[in-house]
Write a structure and sequence with these properties.
The chain is of the alpha+beta class. The chain has helices at about 20-25, 40-50, and strands spanning about 5-10, 35-40, 55-60.
Length: about 60
């Protein structure tokens, strides 16, 4: 069973690079202070690492 991560958008997407906006949208985050639960796949982890200053990440059991 894959590990799950709860990702919360904590920084506004306004005036951010297109790459950071695309990473947030790719994870399913469109509004500030909203959370999504995603699998800890290499693709998702890469998006989280590239834009780590914008997200709060917690491990879900």
């Amino acid at each position: 069973m894959a590990k799950k991560l709860k990702v919360t958008l904590i920084v506004s997407l306004a005036k951010k690079l297109a790459m950071h906006k695309n990473n947030a949208n790719g994870l399913g985050l469109r509004k500030l202070h909203r959370s999504v639960v995603v699998d800890a796949t290499p693709e998702n982890l890469g998006m989280i690492n590239k834009s780590s200053h914008m997200f709060r990440v917690e491990e879900v059991n």
